[in-house]
Every structure is written in structure tokens, then in C-alpha cells.
Amino acid sequence: MKRLSIVFIVLLSSLILAGNATSHIKLDYPAGGETFVAGEKIEIQWQILIPHGEHTDWDLFFSPDGGDNWEIIQLDMPKSQFNYLWTVPHTVTEQAQIRILQDGIGYNGISGEFSIREITSSVQARDEYPKIFALYSNYPNPFNPATTIEFSLTEARFVTLVVYDITSQKVMELVSGEKISGHHSVIWNGTDEFGHNVSSGIYFYRLQTGDFTKTKAMTLVR
Q: What is the SS3 string spanning the chain?
């Protein structure tokens, strides 16, 4: 009976270790779900969750296609380093990922997928005459202190674009009035209707025009 108990414990330990094999390293930022503008600088951050032997250095990689292909960002960073200032490449994608590798051991941390967009192409590259009503993802996201919100109209309409907090309380009315057909953009600077800076957190912006309503989320980081 004792021998069976020992075998069971060994098997259980093996399963636990196998389940945590990819959890030795955590990529804190970007974590996934963010939207960045090509050319902006972000600080990639990571940490060791489970120390495991000695590694020589860090290798950092970027994937534009959900991990199918990896490009080198920086190799041979010292093992005492846990961040890297990265210039977002001019690669428009919805499936970008970052990977940090513990060279010499093989453990790595990989971000969730995030988006990269060109700030100059977001409006200009679309059709001159939109075919649908649309509300687009704000950029940058997360943001501080300001972010750009874009929408398109197929015809002239009365439009409201309002920012709400997580309790559904109105924070700021960005647009309220007639707008011509085409693409439109507005900047929210992270203030309420009284001009006060709002706190860090998740906010929602809602576009309403006729029977069209669309809501998206954004994150303010002070």
C-alpha cells in the first residue's frame, strides 16, 4: 500500500511539473489585447516565476502572425535585465506576439496576441465612401494621456459618441450632432465633462446613430 502511495505521489508530481512547464517565465507587458501604433515605443516587461538553474542571457523575439514566424528583436541581453524599450515595427497585424527566451535553459514566456496599426493609414487607407456604419478600435490602447477613436458613416446622420466608466456612468460626451458621410476621428484626453482627469481603468465608448449602436472598451493607464 505504501509503495502504491509513493508511485501515486510521483505520478502526481510529474503531472504538476508538466502543467507548469511553460509557466517559469511570465511576459507582463504586452500581455495581449493591446493596440499599438507603428513607430511608438513601448517597454516590454517580464519576470521569472520559478527560478530553475542558471541561464546565460535573454533572447527577445517578435511574431507578426500569431507565432508561426519569429523575428529577432534582441539577443544576449544580461540575465539581470527584465525590460526592453522596443520600437513597434511598421507591420500592420492583429496577431502580433512577443516571446522572451531564457537562453541556456529553454524556458520562455509568450504574450497573447495584440494589434499594430499605422496611424496615417487608419483613415486614409479605407474607402473614401464607407460601405458600412462602423466603430473602430481606439489607438493607442492602453493609452496615456490621450487616445484616438474613429468611426465611419455611410450617410449623413445625427451621431452621439459617449464615454462611460465600468459602472455605466457617463464620463464624457465626445460627439453629439449631425455628421456627414465618411470617416471621422475624435481624441479623448482622459478627462470628464468638468475637465478633471479620470483615474486609471477600463472605459467604454459607445457610438449611436439611428438603429446602429456599437460599444468598445479601452484602458487608461496613468
A: CHHHHHHHHHHHHHHHHHHCCCCCEEEEECCCCCEEECCCEEEEEEEECCCCCCCCEEEEEEECECCCCCEEEEEEEECCCCEEEEECCCCCEEEEEEEEEEECCCCEEECCCEEEECCCHHHHCCCCCCCCCEECCCECECECCCEEEEEEECCCEEEEEEEECCCCCEEEEEEEEEECCEEEEEEECCECCCCCECCCEEEEEEEEECCEEEEEEEEECC
